Structure formats: structure tokens, C-alpha cells
């Protein structure tokens, strides 16, 4: 009986210890398993981290390459933009040069046309005034499109007078018949004298050769207008003795200097 009681008491004492030992062993194993699992997860995470590092490095290299490519493309675009601006500038220069050449060509064509017209007018005047030219009363000159008709004063005016005489009017009518239709030119009438000073009773009317040459030029211009030349295309200029074409020391030279010069001039 005592023995059974002792065995029972022993069991009661041993079982809690055994149970406690079993629980502690199970907890430990669980911790070991958790640690192992955490280690495996840690290793997996380490692997992922290493993979991410490799990927990050690859991304960095790719980023650097993109940056290099972008810088290159930007440089090429800038060069292309500069080249485009240079091309535009050259095109603009070529267009300006082309415009200049076109204007120059047009001007040359106009000059050629003017020379041709002047030459044609020159031939017509020579034909109409052949007799006066042969007698030395009229001189017709044409140079590079500029045409001028010189008429000695004796065929237009009596000595010391400024009114155009009958024979002079007949000569001027020939000039008018050709010049009145030339609309792209002005007609300038120049009065010229020799250097012999006005004297006697003429001084009251003509204090100097200026006045005489001016009066004669104006009267010729007025006659041309009466014969159909528009007044807006006419001008009268007095040079007096200051634009000689001959030697005033000889009678022949002075006769050349006493003249009316009719000149075609450009409107501009």
C-alpha cells in the first residue's frame, strides 16, 4: 500500500517535469525552424538584393548611355540648326544678289533701249536736218543714249535779238516733229554766248550775256511748247559765256559759242 502511494507521488512529481521538458523542446524546435526559415528568406532576400543591385547598375549604364546619346543628338540638332540658319542666310544673300542682278539686267536693257531710241532719233534728225548739218548751222551729237542738238544763233536769232526769227522757227519745227513724241525724256534748252560783253543800247535790255542767253533759251522753249511739246517736259537754262565749245579768241570759235543747245535728259 505504501509502495503504491509512493509510486503515485513519484508520477505526480515526474510528469510535470517531463511535460515541461517536452514543451521547452517543442518551443526550441519551433524557434530553430523559424530561424532556419528566416535564414532561408534572408538568403532569398540577399539574392534579390544582389539581383536588384545588378539591375540598378544596368539601369545606371543604360541611363548614362541615354544621356550620352541625348547629348550627341542635342549637339547634332544644334549643328543642324546652325547649318539651317547658314543655308537661310546664304539663300537670302543669293536672293538679294539675284534681285540686284535682275535690276541690273533691267537697267542694262533700259539703257540699251534708250541708246537704240537715241540712235533712231539721231538718224531721224540727221535725215531731216541734213542741209543745215552740211552748212555747219546744226550739230547733232549722240553718246551713250544722250542726244543733243546744237544750233548756231544766226539761224535762230537776228543779231542782238532774242525773238526766234522765221527761218529759225522752220528749223525748230523739224526738231519738234521728232522730239515731241519722246515721252521718257525731258528736253533742256540751254542758251550760250561768246565772251564779248553787251554794249550800247542793248545794255538796257541785257545787262550781261546771262540775260541774253536766258531770254533766247526761254523763247525757244516757249516756241517748242506752242508746237506741241508739253511744257512739263521743257526747261530753259542760261549759261552765258561760261560754257564755250570754241576758242573765243577767233571769230570761228566765238560763232560756235553763240548757240542754243537742245538736250534730251533722263527724267530721273
How would you characterize this protein structure?
This protein is an alpha+beta fold and 268 residues long. The protein folds into two domains: 50-115; 129-266, 60s Ribosomal Protein L30, Chain: A (2-Layer Sandwich). Helices cover 64% and strands 13% of the residues. It contains five helices and five strands, in the order ααββαβαβαβ.
Question: What features would you highlight for this structure?
Answer:
single chain; 268 residues; rod-shaped; 60s Ribosomal Protein L30, Chain: A; 5 helices; alpha+beta; five-stranded mixed β-sheet
Count of discrete domains: 2
**Helix-strand sequence:** HHEEHEHEHE
CATH overall fold name of the largest domain: 60s Ribosomal Protein L30, Chain: A
Give the amount of beta strand, in percent.
Answer: 5-15%
What is the typical, i.e. mean, pLDDT? 85
CATH architecture of the largest domain: 2-Layer Sandwich
* Structure classification: alpha+beta
Q: Poorly predicted ranges (pLDDT <50, ≥5 residues)?
A: none
Neighbour order of strands in the largest sheet: 1-2-5-3-4
Helix content: 55-70%
**Rg result:** 59 Å
Supply the CATH class of the largest domain.
Alpha Beta
Name of the CATH homologous superfamily of the largest domain: OmpA-like domain
The main sheet comes to: 5 strands, mixed
Number of strands: 5
- Which of globular, elongated, flat, extended, rod-shaped describes the shape? rod-shaped
* Number of separate helices: 5
Span between termini: 159 Å
